């Protein structure tokens, strides 16, 4: 699977270089400036806090506590690992396992992260379809059919979550279905959970879209936001596809979307490069979280000086403290 992802990413980038040359990639790197990076860092702080908030809500619904500070630090670490390592999800796997070890339930920790990510992607899909229905975009003619399919999928998920099987079937599939339904009811669809999850997810999508709009403006795209927002949403969906450190499908989708919108594929590639650099820099606090955690693990435990008294080994008393 890793080799397939690497091959697909290399193929996409190779086709773009073959068709467009290296100039769009170099232009994107040259146009990145301090203002764009500062904006990306601020928006990343907003989206990271919202992701941590959403994760904490889902985890609490599944019966495990998660302090907000620890959640924010873990989400920053996850963001950095996702953009620094192949796959785009290794950071999320790491935070799920780490949280599971802290709570002595790795399975539940991984499920909390999986449901949190799924909830975010579901809200993103709904927002994307709604906005693409009302705003002009290259895919607008196909959106009514996509919207109908999305409504059907949401209905199936809601029915599955509310279903309460009476018997305890012996099959593994039946057990998995019951466990998933319990997780959905407790973690996502609980009365106090789903409104906050929707709000947090919408803010995350808004933050990512704003980052892309800034990247497009930095790369020289002069189209108005009403024309750029649908393209940003399409690119964000493409960025969720299997990738290597975020690269590959994002550049391909951006090139196609910009070309279809009449803005030019080279400008799209340059925008994708600017966006990738902004995301990488915005995730650097996660590297600091990793370094701090490593330093704490590597710090030796304080040594206790011992002495022998009467044939027994006892801790030596600090200076100035009299013997009993």
Overall number of domains: 1
Structural class: mainly alpha
Task: Spell the H/E element sequence.
Answer: HHHHEHHHHHHEHHHEE
Alpha carbon gap, first and last residue: 67 Å
In helices, the fraction of residues equals: over 70%
Descriptive account of the structure:
It is a single chain. With 324 residues, the protein is mainly alpha-helical. Helix content is 73%, strand content 4%. It has helices at 2-20, 23-31, 34-61, 68-84, 90-102, 106-134, 143-162, 172-188, 194-218, 225-239, 249-260, 265-282, 284-298; strands at 86-87, 243-244, 306-309, 312-315. A two-stranded antiparallel sheet has the order 1-2. A two-stranded antiparallel ribbon has the order 3-4. The longest helix is centred in the middle third of the chain and has 29 residues, at 106-134. The chain is globular and about 55 Å long. It is found in: Cell membrane. Pfam families: LPG_synthase_TM (PF03706). It comes from Baekduia soli. The chain crosses the membrane at residues 37-55, 118-135, 142-163, 193-216, 228-248, 268-295.
């Amino acid at each position: 699977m890793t080799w397939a992802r690497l091959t697909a990413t290399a193929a996409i980038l190779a086709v773009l270089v073959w068709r467009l040359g290296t100039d769009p990639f170099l232009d994107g790197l040259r146009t990145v400036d301090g203002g764009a990076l500062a904006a990306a860092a601020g928006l990343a702080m907003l989206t990271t806090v919202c992701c941590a908030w959403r994760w904490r809500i889902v985890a609490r619904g599944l019966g495990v506590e998660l302090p907000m500070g620890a959640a924010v630090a873990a989400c920053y670490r996850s963001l950095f690992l996702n953009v620094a390592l192949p796959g785009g999800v290794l950071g999320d796997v790491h935070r799920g396992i780490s949280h599971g070890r802290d709570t002595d339930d790795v399975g539940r920790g991984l499920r909390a992260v999986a449901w949190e990510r799924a909830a975010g992607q579901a809200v993103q899909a709904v927002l994307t379809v709604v906005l693409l229905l009302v705003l002009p975009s290259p895919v607008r003619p196909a959106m009514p059919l996509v919207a109908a399919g999305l409504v059907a999928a949401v209905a199936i998920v809601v029915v599955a979550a509310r279903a309460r099987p009476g018997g305890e079937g012996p099959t593994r599939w039946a057990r998995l279905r019951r466990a998933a339904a319990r997780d959905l009811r407790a973690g996502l669809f609980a009365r106090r959970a789903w409104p906050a999850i929707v709000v947090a997810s919408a803010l995350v999508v808004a933050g990512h879209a704003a980052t892309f709009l800034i990247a497009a403006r930095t790369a020289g795209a002069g189209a108005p936001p009403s024309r750029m927002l649908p393209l940003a949403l399409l690119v964000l969906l493409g960025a969720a596809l299997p990738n290597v450190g975020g690269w590959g499908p994002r550049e391909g989708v951006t090139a196609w979307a910009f070309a279809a919108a009449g803005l030019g594929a080279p400008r799209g590639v340059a925008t994708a490069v600017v966006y990738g650099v902004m995301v990488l820099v915005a995730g650097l606090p996660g590297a600091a979280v990793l370094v701090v955690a490593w330093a704490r693990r590597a710090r030796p435990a304080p040594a206790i000086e011992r002495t022998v008294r009467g044939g027994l080994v006892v801790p030596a008393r600090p200076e100035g403290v009299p013997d009993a």
